[in-house]
Amino acid sequence: MNIHHRKSFIRTLLGATALGAIATALPAAAQNNCDLVNGVLPASCETGNAGDTVRMPVGVNTEIANGARQPATGFIISVDGETFEGDEKVEQKKRQADVALAKADIRVQADDLAVEKRLDLEVMGPTRGHKPGDTVRFQSATNYPAFLTRGEVRIIDQQARGGPRTVGVFPIGPNGQAEVRLPDGRDLVAVHRVYDARGRYDETTALVLDRPNQARGQDDVEEGSSTTAIDRIPVRGGAVTVSGSSLAPNETVSTLGETIRADAQGRFVLQRILPKGDQTVIVQTKSAGRDVTLAREVELGKADWFTVAVADITVGHREQAVTGTDGSYQKGRLAFFTQGTNANGVTITASADTREEDLSDIFRKFDEKDPRSLLTRIDPDEYYLTYGDDSTFEEAAPTAGKFYFKAEKDENFALWGTFKGQVNGSHFLRNERTLYGAQAQYKSAQQTKNGDAKAELQLYAAQPDNLPQRDIFRGTGGSVYFLQRQDISIGSETLSVEIRDPDSGRVLERRTLVYGRDYDINYLQGVVTLRAPLSSSIGGGVVVTNPGGEENVNLVAQYEYTPTAGGLDGYSYGGRAQVWATDQLRFGATALIEKTGAADQKSYGADMLYQFSERTYATLEYARSEGPGFGSSFSTDGGLIIDNTAPAGGTGEAYKAEVVADFADLGFTTDGRFGVYYEHRTLGFSTLDHQVSATTGDETLWGAYTEFQASERLKFTLYYDDYKNDAGQYAREGGVEGSYKLSETRTLGFGIEHLDKLTARETGSRTDFALRYTVKPNERLEWFVYGQATLKRSGLEKNNRVGAGGSYAFNNGWKVEGEVSDGSTGVGAAARVSYEDENNNSVYFGYELDPNREFFAGSVTGKDKGRFVSGGRRQVTRDLAYYGENTYDLFGSHRSLTSTYGVDYARSEFLSYTGSLEVGRINDSINGDFDRHALSFGVRYEDESLTARGRLEYRRERGLTSGTNRDADTILFAASGRYKIDDTQRLVFNLDASKTDTDQSSILDGKLVDASIGYAYRPVDNDRLNVLLKYRYLYDDYGQRIDGTDVTGPRQRSHVLSFDAIYDLNQQWTIGGKIGARLSDSSPNATTAFSENDAWLGVANVRYHLVHKWDALLEARVLNARQIQTKEYGLVGAIYRHVGNNFKLGVGYNSGRFSDDLTDLTYDDKGVFINLIAKF
Questions:
Q1: Which residue range is the domain that position 493 belongs to?
Q2: What single string gives the DSSP state of each residue in 455-499?
Q3: How many domains does the chain have?
Q4: What are phi and psi for residue 482, nearest 5 degrees?
Q5: Residues contacting 1147, CB < 8 A, separation 6+
Q6: Cα 208 from Cα 129, distance rounded (Å)
Q7: What is the DSSP string of 103-124?
Q8: Which CATH number covers residue 1082?
């Protein structure tokens, strides 16, 4: 947690009453007998504040001097902490180091509260894809190397027969580099794993290698990113951050055991987590004309806490009470934030804000959600946009309610707040939703030999804020995909790429994508942009059954959205427990329950794993689901046409068993492995990945495979897969494939396969034989030819086919790859030309024609003529870049064009522009025509004084989809800015506006304008005068939605002005004033006309402060409420007594019927009150 957050929390916590509180001053108190006599105070001197003791906290830049033992000479001479004469023991070593670091403009910061681990793997060199045989240089990046003993890069073949398989492990030191020659494999990815002294390990997400990605590193530059997927290594200590901003460009800095370079602006930052205790941080900088070595002592891992709290309780009696009441009232507000780590290593983060409530109700609704969204829970707009202190807001306690708590140690924690579900470990059941409620995790300290906790428990219980949506997109060969919903909850998405068997629906591989590295998302528009194009199919052996690819490639997007119909009352709870009975045997159980109005789903299961080694294991799993499920949507064209799949409904079960064994673990010397699997799913079974409906009934699939190296040159693969369902359909496939290495550059492949099918599209059997000849003379060139023939068939058409293909990487960055074939089912083709260089330039053009492609959304006539994809990015200059992509699909009578264009322009160091255009068009004579246009423009400016940004977006949709009208228009505009007028003045503004005209499927019709301006005058050297100003304009035609439901609430058009000022006449007297005005028209709902609701409030006050003990307030108020045609006057007087530094008690009287809250329309505030305030 940094000081910016702390300032922000104090500002928010105390800002509402900052101007209403009694101002403090330091008067010249009366003194008796205190005139100096010969320069000495007389013994009878008594000051006016005698007997008062007040402890003041030491500021962050204040140092407490150590008492010095005087040398014989009786004096010490020192400058900037360096002793020139006197006792050397009184040297201020830390101060001396601080001064030296400041002169070099280098900062060393130690923080025990900001220990956040980072682990990443980067690929050095050109941004291009890599294939087996290529040499790749990897860079390890972590900020906790002091806790690690070793690291490795693990190369995994995601498309290996039977599932992902580790095909290579290569050592790499933490923050080191390693050159790896990629082993053979069909779909290679890399993960980075690091180990501690006890064998526990952390691991990154998979880094794709066969296509360009953004995880590119630069030598000696600290990136600061993290892609941790498995987190098992506990870290106890503190974070040490070394940074600088005025070095020479590319100047080297050696510190914390590593050497990095400053950037082109002379800036650098390096953070490392170090073990607790005393640490010496040495900083060395070297450049022409400068060679500096500095040392700084820091203490880490001590019990360090930051806490701020306030309690405000008011008890009073109303003279004009509501009939039937005695007029007495008790109100209060409690709020706090605390974060720290105790001596046992437990980190506590907690916050609460009850808001002002009757004391009898203050805790009754403590666990309920606040109607405000997460990001506006502590809403600056409720008070002032700026308080003039340059504080910023960081959410260290995310919660959609009034309370947050998290206690954590190592990997164990208990939490109440907003969290993302992380229940996994089961093949069938998992939870990835963003929820509000309770979450807990326990992992035992005892571990298996592989570093797994002996026992694990994950639990959650929550109130869903929104509804979940699951969109499935077949890869289009492009990178842009349109989600079905808009108004996506920020950070709620989980995107993954799945490889599925097209017949059985079996998930062969799932890879979770990383935001920023693998994709970007526009939450308002609901548009996902992948960093690399995604093909529609992948894989295949020697025998070609489908020229376009054997397995389907899907982009799966799960996210939360705000519904526009229906309520969300209900709960979501569940969890998972697992225990390792031995180092090899694990038992687990999972339960997930969703009760959210329309959805009422129960899922639970149990599983067992026997893991002899990483490559030899056996699993057994059972799962059961009850309820309708959530269903999903499916699109083959990137989201232009969406086919919704209804939930299966009912009750169903699923069973799964799998055994995989590596020959080496069985004692064989031959390199190879085998595997068998069995899976059964009954009607009604519904999970995130499977929907078993009446169309298929119960489903059963099983299979077996083996692959082994018969000799140094010869390799064999045998496989059989069987699928059937209660509808009488089945698909059986079995075969033998082999490859013989003729030489280091030439390989001969051969295979025979038998296929037997009875499906809705095909019935019959067939036996095919194929030969494939591949040549790879070097890393840049590869080509192949193949031919196959049907030896025997019955019912199925022949599968005779010949084809050729290859790829060539030119030295100048261009690469050409393609394949063409012809046979019994028609012509198949795939071609791609691409260019990539180190300057962020890329171009690609591709075409694919799959003779077996199917159209899922609606009906279609005519012949498939394939799909074209072209795009690229061009870095024209250092400041200007543009990008674009076009996908043109010619599927018979259905033709679609999707285009995306964008530009990034850095006009100067301070000013930049972005713009994008997205176009989608469908011409379909059967299902209807459809057009989509989305335009976005953004601007950002940032210098030392001004930070401003704005974004305008427009989306227009016209047309029909299978008879459904999809006309919609949406305009969105957002802008914000912060201007530092001078050292004493700040100006802040915000603007959000939208206009929608839709079918209200995911965004309501209406208009919204929310504009606000804030001003603060806060002198630095003389704070006698302080001024705060805020103006807000709100036009809300949607009607406020409460708790995420569509119960249309009040509409309003309002201007709200608030002005506060205080001025210190002297050390005892302060005058102040406040003006508040509301010019408003309101309506309770969409069918009632607007009516005026204007009011203004004026306040003038004077405060007297008697040092240390007493404060007095006299305040005059006037309220003019036009709607009820009344003008009220009032006088408030109060006196407060300070008790120590943390308490004050006051009593007062309000002669008026109203308060200073414009939203309070009760007019019953006349009377006496007692107020107790405690602050810490």
A1: 470-567
A2: EEEEEEEEE-SSEEEEEEEE--SSSEEE-S--SBPTT--EEEEEE
A3: 3
A4: -100, 120
A5: 1134, 1135, 1168, 1169, 1170, 1171
A6: 8
A7: HTTEEEEEESS-----EEEEEE
A8: 2.40.160
Q: Is residue 1170 exposed (0-12), middle (13-18) or buried (19+ Cβ within 10 Å)? A: middle
Q: Which helix (H) or strand (E) holds 574?
A: strand 570-580
Q: Is residue 797 part of a domain?
A: no
- The partner residues of 790 in beta bridges, in order of sequence, read 768
Instruction: Please list the residues that pair with 802 across neighbouring strands.
Output: 787, 822
Q: Split the chain (1176 residues) into runs of 10 and give each run's mean pLDDT.
A: 38 34 35 50 50 42 42 42 45 52 70 81 76 87 92 88 83 92 86 90 88 52 71 84 80 83 79 84 74 78 82 86 72 89 84 84 64 34 56 69 86 88 85 85 88 91 77 81 77 86 80 83 77 76 78 87 58 92 95 75 93 92 87 78 75 94 90 93 87 89 93 92 93 94 93 92 92 90 94 92 91 87 89 80 85 66 81 81 82 78 82 83 70 82 86 79 70 85 87 73 65 87 86 73 45 83 90 87 69 83 84 89 78 90 89 67 76 88
Q: How far apart are CA 462 and CA 399, in angstroms?
A: 12
Is residue 7 within a helix (H) or strand (E), and if so which, with residue range? helix 3-15
- 8: helix, strand or coil: helix
Q: Where are the alpha helices (DSSP H) in 51-123?
A: 93-103
Q: CB–CB of 193/154 below 8 Å?
A: yes
**In the prediction, which pLDDT does 391 show?**
60
Hey, what amino acid is at 824?
S
Q: Where in 925-1024 does DSSP place strands (E)?
A: 930-942, 946-961, 964-965, 968-980, 985-997, 1006-1017
Coil, helix or strand at residue 664: helix
Closest by CA to 772, choosing from 543, 550, 547, is 543
Q: Which of 569, 566, 591 is nearest to 578 (CA)?
A: 591
Contacts of 3 (CB under 8 A, 6+ apart): 60
pLDDT at 863: 79
Domain membership of residue 197 (yes or no) is: yes
Instruction: State how far the Cα of 182 lies from the Cα of 171, in Å rounded to an integer.
Output: 14
**What does the block give as tokens for 202?**
């952390």
Query: Rounded to the nearest 5°, which phi and psi values hold at 1017?
Result: -120, 110
Q: Token digits for 107?
A: 């900062």
Cα pseudo-dihedral 69, 75, 81, 87, rounded to 10: -50
Of 652, 591, 585, whose CA–CA distance to 619 is shortest? Answer: 585
Q: What is the pLDDT of residue 1151?
A: 87
Please report the beta strands in 759-893, taking only residues with DSSP state E, as ranges in sequence order.
763-775, 781-794, 801-809, 814-823, 828-836, 842-849, 864-875, 880-891
The length of the chain in residues reads 1176
Domain edge (last residue) among 279, 300, 321: 300
In three-state secondary structure terms, 550 is coil
So what's the pLDDT on residue 367? 56
Which residue blocks in 808-888 are alpha helix, DSSP H? none
Q: Which residues contact 123 (CB under 8 A, 6 or more apart)?
A: 130, 136, 137, 138, 139, 207, 209, 213, 215, 216, 217
Would you give the distance in Å from CA 1151 to the centre of its chain? Answer: 52
Q: Considering the domain boundaries, does residue 20 fall inside one?
A: no
The rounded distance, in Å, linking the Cα atoms of 1092 and 1120 is 13
SS3 850: coil
| CA end-to-end distance (rounded Å), the chain | 18
CB-CB neighbours of 1108 under 10 Å: 18
> Is position 321 within any domain?
no
- Rounded to an integer, what distance in angstroms lies between the CA atom of residue 48 and that of residue 68? 33
- d(C-alpha 938, C-alpha 89), whole Å: 60
Q: Over 478-489, what HEC string results?
A: CCEEECCCCCEC
Task: Report whether 213 contacts 123 (CB < 8 A).
Answer: yes
What's the pLDDT at 585?
95
Those residues with Cβ within 8 angstroms of residue 585's Cβ, 6 or more apart along the chain or in another chain: 608, 609, 610
Q: What is the pLDDT of residue 594?
A: 83
